[in-house]
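debug: dumping io for the single-chain case to check the tokenizer round-trip. Nothing else runs in this session.
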Amino acid sequence: MAGELTTAGRPDDAAERALGLIEGGARLVLVHGGAGTGKTTFLHALRKHDDRRQVFVAPTGVAALNVGGQTIHSFFGLPPRLVGRDEIRPRPFARRLMRKLDRLVVDEVSMARADLVDAMDLSLRIARGRDEPFGGVQVVLVGDFLQLAPVVPMAEQQILASLGYEGPYAFHARVLAEARMAGVAFTTVHRQSDPVFVRWLDRLRRGEDVEAAVEAINDACVRPHRDGREPVLLAGTNARVDAYNAAGMAQLPAREQGYLGTSAGEFGLDGDRLPVPERLALKVGARVMSVRNDIARRYVNGSTGTVVGLGDAGARVRFDNGIEMEVEAETWERIRYAVDEASERIEAKVVGSYTQLPLVPAWAVTIHKAQGLTLEDVRIDLGSGAFAPGQSYVALSRARSLAGLSLVRPLRPRDIRVDPRVVAFVEDLERG
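debug: decoded output
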């Protein structure tokens, strides 16, 4: 029927069920699933359904860019800190926007703290003058609580506890206890095809049978990387990644060429790094990774390759898929939602842009920056150990296959950090 939501191109029972709930008017839907289960495809399908006034938000600047929306803090006018309920006073412009809103889509919800979810709820109630969850707006939450968690310093954890929160995760928000939530678990993995690898990853994601899963992955992957392939090394910190990339670049005898990124209007990522450094230094022979999808799909976000030529306007890259082409500058746009006066619809207005080659050095990438990517060849260096729940799982699950995965050092059971509160929540969701 006209306006019907669909995931055309990939039949998936869970995605169809989620879209059916949304189309049927469910007020609060949580779409939850592990790495490579189709959450991004689901978001694309939801974006195409444009007969309602909907906005897309995310907790971080990079996540907001990826989903084509605003950060939560920017959309709701919230400062980047704990905010008291008496401090939440939506500005007139924001109130008008929120009154027009039909649907709010929150991507990477696992990285949003409980108090931030409650701040969204209260902002909408105030703006819309309706004392019901999220002011009566339909809310779609998308993410995986068993991947990277929100960053909550100890002092803020103590404050949250003093405010009565059972924990820092979004599902600890008071509004989610009040609202009736329909949960849909995406469990079919599309990224990996090896059922043994998928099973081991799922055990590590949940913290089940960890010693056996760790031993199995170590037996398969503690080795030099496979011959003839150059892996992307994943590490936990920017310092470690920067050191790897600097060493790789220094070993190349070729002359370095710099490319300067340019910003226009308002383009800030709320403390996140730019998608590509403002000064990008490349050499012939450098390993690089694309951070955008080519419109002709010759490469995608996460495609790796080697620089074979440099010019004033861009770099010639031989991608590992065999395609060789000129890669020139592309533009990232920062948007802000506004109400169009004539149509009374919510529109995304471009308020800033950043233009640069969509390439980054790729001898190494942080685990955090690799979230969401699919990589054919991955080597993992956890250094002194994982320092956040879900970190090891995110790193391992980037690999498409065991053949393309290698480890600098063996995994240790203590590298697999899982919060039992999250496991309990996820298992309850999956039971329906």
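debug: round-trip ok. The first helix runs from residue 13 to 23.
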